[in-house]
Amino acid sequence: MIELEGVPELIDPVMVAAFEGWNDAGDAASTAVAHLEREWKGEVFAALDAEDYYDFQVNRPTVFMDAGVRKITWPTTRLSVVRVGGEKPRDLVLVRGIEPSMRWRSFCNELLGFAHELGVELVVVLGALLGDTPHTRPVPVSGVTSDPDLAQRMDLEETKYEGPTGIVGVLQEACTHAGVPAVSLWAAVPHYVSQPPNPKATLALLNRLEDLLDLRIPLGELPEDARAWQVGVDQLAAEDSEVAEYVQTLEEARDTAELPEASGEAIAREFERYLRRRDVSPPGGRTRPPMPPKAGASGGSEGPAEGSAEGASEGSAEGAAGGSTDGFPDGFSEGDDQGTAEE
DSSP per residue over 154-203, as a string? Predict the structure, then answer.
Protein backbone atom coordinates (compact mmCIF):
# COMPACT_ATOMS: atom_id res chain seq x y z
CA MET A 1 0.00 0.00 0.00
CA ILE A 2 1.32 3.42 -0.97
CA GLU A 3 0.88 5.98 1.79
CA LEU A 4 0.97 9.61 0.75
CA GLU A 5 1.52 11.87 3.72
CA GLY A 6 1.25 15.59 3.20
CA VAL A 7 -0.48 15.34 -0.17
CA PRO A 8 -3.86 17.10 -0.05
CA GLU A 9 -6.97 15.76 -1.74
CA LEU A 10 -6.57 16.56 -5.41
CA ILE A 11 -9.07 18.17 -7.79
CA ASP A 12 -9.71 16.34 -11.08
CA PRO A 13 -6.08 15.13 -11.17
CA VAL A 14 -4.30 14.29 -14.41
CA MET A 15 -0.89 12.58 -14.44
CA VAL A 16 1.59 14.00 -16.97
CA ALA A 17 4.78 11.97 -17.42
CA ALA A 18 7.98 12.12 -19.46
CA PHE A 19 11.18 10.11 -19.36
CA GLU A 20 14.68 10.92 -20.54
CA GLY A 21 16.27 8.48 -22.94
CA TRP A 22 15.00 6.50 -25.91
CA ASN A 23 11.66 8.33 -26.14
CA ASP A 24 12.92 11.88 -25.60
CA ALA A 25 14.51 13.22 -28.77
CA GLY A 26 16.12 16.57 -28.10
CA ASP A 27 15.03 16.30 -24.46
CA ALA A 28 11.79 17.88 -25.65
CA ALA A 29 9.39 15.79 -23.54
CA SER A 30 11.29 15.83 -20.25
CA THR A 31 11.90 19.56 -20.65
CA ALA A 32 8.17 20.11 -21.10
CA VAL A 33 7.38 18.46 -17.76
CA ALA A 34 10.27 20.34 -16.13
CA HIS A 35 8.73 23.55 -17.47
CA LEU A 36 5.37 22.74 -15.87
CA GLU A 37 7.12 21.95 -12.61
CA ARG A 38 9.02 25.21 -12.66
CA GLU A 39 6.18 27.49 -13.77
CA TRP A 40 3.69 26.09 -11.27
CA LYS A 41 6.26 25.49 -8.49
CA GLY A 42 5.70 21.78 -8.20
CA GLU A 43 6.40 20.11 -4.87
CA VAL A 44 8.04 16.67 -5.01
CA PHE A 45 6.18 14.22 -2.79
CA ALA A 46 7.64 10.88 -3.85
CA ALA A 47 10.63 9.30 -5.60
CA LEU A 48 11.03 5.74 -6.80
CA ASP A 49 13.89 3.70 -5.33
CA ALA A 50 16.75 4.04 -7.80
CA GLU A 51 18.20 0.65 -6.75
CA ASP A 52 15.13 -1.12 -8.11
CA TYR A 53 15.12 0.23 -11.65
CA TYR A 54 18.44 1.72 -12.77
CA ASP A 55 21.81 0.41 -13.89
CA PHE A 56 24.19 2.97 -12.43
CA GLN A 57 26.84 2.17 -15.06
CA VAL A 58 24.36 3.39 -17.66
CA ASN A 59 22.83 6.27 -15.70
CA ARG A 60 25.51 7.34 -13.28
CA PRO A 61 24.88 9.28 -10.05
CA THR A 62 26.32 12.77 -9.76
CA VAL A 63 28.23 14.40 -6.94
CA PHE A 64 27.61 17.99 -5.87
CA MET A 65 28.56 20.33 -3.03
CA ASP A 66 25.89 21.61 -0.64
CA ALA A 67 27.17 24.15 1.89
CA GLY A 68 30.59 22.53 1.74
CA VAL A 69 29.23 19.01 2.12
CA ARG A 70 29.56 16.50 -0.72
CA LYS A 71 26.28 14.84 -1.66
CA ILE A 72 25.14 12.40 -4.33
CA THR A 73 22.10 12.65 -6.56
CA TRP A 74 20.90 9.26 -7.75
CA PRO A 75 19.12 8.84 -11.09
CA THR A 76 15.47 8.13 -10.42
CA THR A 77 11.90 9.12 -11.21
CA ARG A 78 10.20 11.75 -9.06
CA LEU A 79 6.57 12.73 -8.66
CA SER A 80 5.37 16.24 -7.88
CA VAL A 81 1.98 17.90 -7.73
CA VAL A 82 0.91 21.32 -8.99
CA ARG A 83 -2.39 23.13 -8.82
CA VAL A 84 -3.63 24.95 -11.92
CA GLY A 85 -5.73 27.94 -10.88
CA GLY A 86 -8.59 29.65 -12.66
CA GLU A 87 -12.34 29.37 -12.64
CA LYS A 88 -12.08 25.59 -12.63
CA PRO A 89 -8.90 24.68 -10.72
CA ARG A 90 -7.42 21.24 -11.17
CA ASP A 91 -4.29 19.39 -10.16
CA LEU A 92 -1.53 17.85 -12.23
CA VAL A 93 0.63 15.01 -10.97
CA LEU A 94 3.95 15.42 -12.76
CA VAL A 95 6.21 12.42 -13.31
CA ARG A 96 9.73 13.15 -14.50
CA GLY A 97 12.57 10.69 -14.61
CA ILE A 98 14.72 8.43 -16.74
CA GLU A 99 13.65 5.41 -18.72
CA PRO A 100 14.36 2.49 -16.35
CA SER A 101 17.09 -0.04 -17.08
CA MET A 102 15.19 -3.00 -15.60
CA ARG A 103 11.93 -4.23 -14.04
CA TRP A 104 9.70 -2.19 -16.33
CA ARG A 105 6.50 -3.93 -15.25
CA SER A 106 7.19 -3.23 -11.60
CA PHE A 107 8.10 0.35 -12.51
CA CYS A 108 4.77 0.89 -14.26
CA ASN A 109 2.83 -0.83 -11.48
CA GLU A 110 4.40 1.48 -8.91
CA LEU A 111 3.42 4.56 -10.91
CA LEU A 112 -0.09 3.17 -11.33
CA GLY A 113 -0.24 2.65 -7.58
CA PHE A 114 0.35 6.36 -7.09
CA ALA A 115 -2.21 7.16 -9.76
CA HIS A 116 -4.81 4.99 -7.98
CA GLU A 117 -4.15 6.48 -4.55
CA LEU A 118 -4.34 10.01 -5.91
CA GLY A 119 -7.51 9.42 -7.91
CA VAL A 120 -5.90 10.21 -11.26
CA GLU A 121 -8.53 10.38 -14.02
CA LEU A 122 -6.21 10.46 -17.05
CA VAL A 123 -2.54 9.72 -17.76
CA VAL A 124 -0.78 11.72 -20.48
CA VAL A 125 2.71 10.57 -21.46
CA LEU A 126 4.89 12.91 -23.51
CA GLY A 127 7.45 11.72 -26.03
CA ALA A 128 9.61 13.03 -28.86
CA LEU A 129 11.04 11.28 -31.91
CA LEU A 130 13.34 11.96 -34.83
CA GLY A 131 11.56 12.47 -38.15
CA ASP A 132 11.85 13.74 -41.70
CA THR A 133 10.37 17.12 -40.88
CA PRO A 134 11.92 20.50 -41.77
CA HIS A 135 12.98 22.86 -39.02
CA THR A 136 11.33 25.73 -40.93
CA ARG A 137 7.84 24.38 -40.36
CA PRO A 138 5.72 23.92 -37.22
CA VAL A 139 6.56 20.82 -35.20
CA PRO A 140 4.05 18.02 -35.85
CA VAL A 141 2.48 16.61 -32.67
CA SER A 142 0.40 13.45 -32.72
CA GLY A 143 -1.94 12.20 -30.01
CA VAL A 144 -2.47 8.45 -29.78
CA THR A 145 -4.17 5.95 -27.49
CA SER A 146 -4.86 2.22 -27.47
CA ASP A 147 -8.39 2.78 -26.12
CA PRO A 148 -10.89 2.93 -29.04
CA ASP A 149 -13.51 4.76 -26.98
CA LEU A 150 -11.00 7.33 -25.77
CA ALA A 151 -9.71 7.80 -29.31
CA GLN A 152 -13.19 8.64 -30.54
CA ARG A 153 -14.10 10.83 -27.58
CA MET A 154 -10.93 12.93 -27.65
CA ASP A 155 -10.29 12.82 -31.40
CA LEU A 156 -7.05 10.87 -31.11
CA GLU A 157 -5.41 8.23 -33.27
CA GLU A 158 -5.91 4.63 -32.18
CA THR A 159 -2.48 3.05 -32.19
CA LYS A 160 -1.84 0.08 -34.46
CA TYR A 161 1.92 0.00 -34.06
CA GLU A 162 3.80 -3.30 -33.85
CA GLY A 163 7.51 -3.39 -33.10
CA PRO A 164 10.10 -2.35 -30.50
CA THR A 165 8.81 -0.07 -27.80
CA GLY A 166 10.07 2.06 -24.93
CA ILE A 167 8.77 2.96 -21.51
CA VAL A 168 6.18 5.35 -22.99
CA GLY A 169 4.48 2.53 -24.87
CA VAL A 170 4.78 0.11 -21.95
CA LEU A 171 3.30 2.59 -19.47
CA GLN A 172 0.44 3.44 -21.81
CA GLU A 173 -0.45 -0.25 -22.21
CA ALA A 174 -0.16 -0.80 -18.46
CA CYS A 175 -2.64 2.02 -17.91
CA THR A 176 -5.03 0.55 -20.47
CA HIS A 177 -4.96 -2.89 -18.83
CA ALA A 178 -5.48 -1.28 -15.42
CA GLY A 179 -8.53 0.60 -16.68
CA VAL A 180 -6.86 4.02 -16.49
CA PRO A 181 -7.42 6.23 -19.57
CA ALA A 182 -4.05 7.01 -21.15
CA VAL A 183 -2.84 9.18 -24.03
CA SER A 184 0.58 9.67 -25.58
CA LEU A 185 1.57 12.95 -27.24
CA TRP A 186 4.50 12.72 -29.67
CA ALA A 187 6.49 15.57 -31.16
CA ALA A 188 8.37 14.78 -34.37
CA VAL A 189 11.63 16.71 -34.67
CA PRO A 190 14.18 17.06 -37.50
CA HIS A 191 16.76 14.31 -37.46
CA TYR A 192 19.42 16.57 -38.98
CA VAL A 193 19.49 18.87 -35.93
CA SER A 194 19.42 16.28 -33.19
CA GLN A 195 21.20 17.89 -30.26
CA PRO A 196 19.23 19.15 -27.25
CA PRO A 197 17.81 21.42 -26.04
CA ASN A 198 14.82 21.77 -28.33
CA PRO A 199 12.58 24.64 -27.20
CA LYS A 200 10.44 24.46 -30.33
CA ALA A 201 9.43 20.83 -29.79
CA THR A 202 8.89 21.50 -26.09
CA LEU A 203 6.62 24.42 -26.97
CA ALA A 204 4.67 22.26 -29.43
CA LEU A 205 4.08 19.57 -26.81
CA LEU A 206 2.88 22.11 -24.24
CA ASN A 207 0.49 23.68 -26.76
CA ARG A 208 -0.96 20.27 -27.59
CA LEU A 209 -1.28 19.47 -23.89
CA GLU A 210 -3.13 22.76 -23.43
CA ASP A 211 -5.65 21.75 -26.06
CA LEU A 212 -6.05 18.24 -24.69
CA LEU A 213 -6.65 19.30 -21.08
CA ASP A 214 -8.36 22.63 -21.81
CA LEU A 215 -6.10 24.67 -19.56
CA ARG A 216 -3.77 27.63 -19.81
CA ILE A 217 -0.05 26.89 -19.52
CA PRO A 218 2.28 29.83 -18.83
CA LEU A 219 5.02 29.66 -21.45
CA GLY A 220 7.51 32.13 -20.02
CA GLU A 221 10.49 32.68 -22.33
CA LEU A 222 9.91 29.46 -24.26
CA PRO A 223 8.46 31.08 -27.43
CA GLU A 224 11.38 33.51 -27.63
CA ASP A 225 13.87 30.68 -27.05
CA ALA A 226 12.28 28.72 -29.89
CA ARG A 227 12.51 31.69 -32.25
CA ALA A 228 16.14 32.27 -31.38
CA TRP A 229 16.91 28.61 -31.93
CA GLN A 230 15.33 28.64 -35.36
CA VAL A 231 17.38 31.65 -36.36
CA GLY A 232 20.50 29.76 -35.34
CA VAL A 233 19.60 26.68 -37.38
CA ASP A 234 18.64 28.86 -40.35
CA GLN A 235 22.09 30.36 -40.29
CA LEU A 236 23.81 26.98 -40.07
CA ALA A 237 21.70 25.56 -42.91
CA ALA A 238 22.46 28.58 -45.11
CA GLU A 239 26.18 27.86 -44.78
CA ASP A 240 25.83 24.34 -46.25
CA SER A 241 24.30 24.07 -49.73
CA GLU A 242 23.55 20.35 -49.36
CA VAL A 243 21.67 20.88 -46.11
CA ALA A 244 19.79 23.84 -47.58
CA GLU A 245 18.73 21.74 -50.57
CA TYR A 246 17.64 18.88 -48.32
CA VAL A 247 15.60 21.24 -46.15
CA GLN A 248 13.89 22.63 -49.24
CA THR A 249 12.94 19.09 -50.30
CA LEU A 250 11.43 18.41 -46.88
CA GLU A 251 9.54 21.71 -47.02
CA GLU A 252 7.99 20.88 -50.38
CA ALA A 253 6.91 17.43 -49.20
CA ARG A 254 5.48 18.83 -45.96
CA ASP A 255 3.60 21.67 -47.67
CA THR A 256 2.07 19.32 -50.25
CA ALA A 257 0.95 16.86 -47.57
CA GLU A 258 -0.59 19.51 -45.32
CA LEU A 259 -2.20 21.78 -47.89
CA PRO A 260 -5.73 20.37 -47.28
CA GLU A 261 -5.33 20.97 -43.54
CA ALA A 262 -4.83 24.73 -43.85
CA SER A 263 -8.44 25.15 -42.81
CA GLY A 264 -10.62 27.39 -40.71
CA GLU A 265 -10.56 24.71 -38.00
CA ALA A 266 -6.80 25.19 -37.52
CA ILE A 267 -7.24 28.97 -37.35
CA ALA A 268 -10.08 28.59 -34.84
CA ARG A 269 -7.93 26.36 -32.65
CA GLU A 270 -5.14 28.93 -32.51
CA PHE A 271 -7.66 31.69 -31.75
CA GLU A 272 -9.16 29.73 -28.86
CA ARG A 273 -5.70 29.17 -27.41
CA TYR A 274 -5.06 32.91 -27.72
CA LEU A 275 -8.26 33.64 -25.78
CA ARG A 276 -7.59 31.00 -23.14
CA ARG A 277 -4.20 32.48 -22.35
CA ARG A 278 -5.94 35.78 -21.68
CA ASP A 279 -8.66 34.23 -19.54
CA VAL A 280 -11.34 35.12 -22.08
CA SER A 281 -14.21 32.73 -22.78
CA PRO A 282 -14.16 31.51 -26.41
CA PRO A 283 -17.00 32.56 -28.69
CA GLY A 284 -20.12 30.47 -28.27
CA GLY A 285 -19.20 29.49 -24.72
CA ARG A 286 -17.11 26.49 -25.73
CA THR A 287 -15.69 24.68 -22.74
CA ARG A 288 -13.28 22.58 -24.76
CA PRO A 289 -11.28 23.52 -27.85
CA PRO A 290 -11.42 21.19 -30.85
CA MET A 291 -8.68 18.60 -31.16
CA PRO A 292 -6.06 19.18 -33.86
CA PRO A 293 -6.60 17.32 -37.15
CA LYS A 294 -5.61 13.68 -37.06
CA ALA A 295 -2.00 13.07 -37.92
CA GLY A 296 -1.28 11.75 -41.37
CA ALA A 297 1.86 9.89 -42.33
CA SER A 298 4.03 11.64 -44.86
CA GLY A 299 6.28 8.73 -45.57
CA GLY A 300 6.30 6.65 -42.41
CA SER A 301 5.98 2.91 -42.62
CA GLU A 302 3.68 2.63 -39.62
CA GLY A 303 0.59 4.58 -38.71
CA PRO A 304 0.17 8.34 -38.53
CA ALA A 305 1.55 8.87 -35.06
CA GLU A 306 2.87 5.73 -33.53
CA GLY A 307 4.43 4.52 -36.75
CA SER A 308 6.45 7.65 -37.03
CA ALA A 309 7.14 7.28 -33.37
CA GLU A 310 8.11 3.80 -32.33
CA GLY A 311 9.18 2.98 -35.83
CA ALA A 312 11.95 5.50 -35.33
CA SER A 313 13.86 2.88 -33.39
CA GLU A 314 14.81 1.30 -36.68
CA GLY A 315 16.13 4.60 -37.99
CA SER A 316 14.70 8.06 -38.08
CA ALA A 317 10.94 8.38 -37.86
CA GLU A 318 9.78 9.11 -41.34
CA GLY A 319 6.73 11.19 -41.82
CA ALA A 320 5.22 12.16 -38.50
CA ALA A 321 3.00 14.79 -39.98
CA GLY A 322 0.30 15.84 -37.60
CA GLY A 323 -1.50 18.75 -36.07
CA SER A 324 1.08 21.41 -35.50
CA THR A 325 0.73 23.20 -32.21
CA ASP A 326 3.56 25.65 -32.13
CA GLY A 327 2.05 29.00 -31.31
CA PHE A 328 3.97 30.80 -34.06
CA PRO A 329 4.39 30.08 -37.76
CA ASP A 330 7.86 28.74 -38.31
CA GLY A 331 9.61 26.36 -36.00
CA PHE A 332 11.85 23.38 -35.62
CA SER A 333 13.14 21.02 -33.00
CA GLU A 334 15.92 18.59 -32.43
CA GLY A 335 16.14 14.95 -31.49
CA ASP A 336 18.96 13.00 -29.91
CA ASP A 337 20.28 9.53 -30.53
CA GLN A 338 17.30 8.02 -28.80
CA GLY A 339 15.00 9.36 -31.50
CA THR A 340 12.40 6.71 -30.99
CA ALA A 341 8.94 6.73 -29.72
CA GLU A 342 6.00 4.59 -29.20
CA GLU A 343 2.43 4.79 -29.73
Answer: HT-EEP---S---HHHHHHHHHHHTT--EEEEEEEEETTS-PSP-HHHHH
Q: List pLDDT tens digits, range 119-172.
A: 999 999 999 999 888 888 889 899 999 888 889 888 899 888 888 899 999 999
**C-alpha distances in Å from residue 2, one per residue of 19, 100, 111, 113:** 22, 20, 10, 7
* pLDDT reported for residue 326: 47
CA distances to 29, 75, 162, 166, 268 from 54, rounded to whole Å, are 20, 7, 26, 15, 45
Residue 108 burial (CB < 10 Å; 0-12/13-18/19+)? Answer: buried
Spatial distance between the Cα atoms of 27 and 18, rounded to a whole number of angstroms:
10
Amino acid at 187: A
Answer for the pair 41, 82: CB distance below 8 angstroms, yes or no: yes
Whether the CB-CB separation of 127 and 309 falls below 8 Å is answered with yes
The count of residues in the chain is 343
* 343 contacts 159 by C-beta, under 8 angstroms: yes
pLDDT 10s digits, 178-225: 999 999 999 998 988 888 999 999 999 999 999 999 889 999 999 999
Query: What pTM does this model have?
Result: 0.74
- pLDDT in the model for residue 275: 59
Distance CA 247, CA 243 (A): 6
